Amino acid sequence: MGIRLNAIEIVVSDMAASVAFYRRLGVEFAEGAEGAPHADAELGGGIKLMLDTEETIRSFRPEWAAPQAPGRLGLACECGSPAGVDEKFEELLAAGYRGELKPFDAFWGQRYATVLDPDGNSVDLYAASA
Q1: What pLDDT does 41 receive?
Q2: Mean pLDDT, the chain, as a whole number?
Q3: Are 125 and 113 in contact (CB under 8 A)?
């Protein structure tokens, strides 16, 4: 039997804030997920995104502590077009999320930007340059 990576889990400090952020990126969480200790959503291709509160993790790992510095996890979202990168970046900033890297035309042929989720994880926005 082979092993297949099929889930990405993020430990979150505020479930409602995290669900709201990822919904803005098009992830479809069930109604009421913002108040649950665990939430998951299908991303397609048999992959799912799972969110667990810090309290949930501590329920079976009491010694667990949140990392002091963010940035160990990076996610990326294809935006369909260079204008889509700019639009999503501006939408997220207008909603109060932090931008880490303003949209730019990368030398590798993409329009690229980075925002931070509520826990400081990097989420890249990208599209092939026109």
Answers
A1: 97
A2: 94
A3: yes
Q: What pLDDT, on a 0 to 100 scale, did the predictor assign at position 66? A: 87
Q: 3-state SS string over 24-41?
A: HCCCCCCCCHHHCCEEEE
Give the Cα separation of 80 and 106 in Å (integer): 16
> How far from 2 is each of 8, 43, 109, CA to CA, in Å?
18, 21, 35
Q: At what angle do helices 82-94 and 15-24 cross, to 10 degrees?
A: 150
Instruction: From 82, 83, 101, 104, select the one nearest 93 (Cα to Cα).
Output: 101
The neighbouring-strand residues paired with 101 are: 114
Please give the model's pTM, rounded to 2 decimal places. 0.89
In whole angstroms, give the CA distance from residue 106 to residue 129.
8
Give me the pLDDT at residue 2, please: 82
CA 77 to chain CA centroid, nearest Å: 9
* Residue 73 pLDDT grade (very low, low, confident, very high; cuts 50, 70, 90): confident
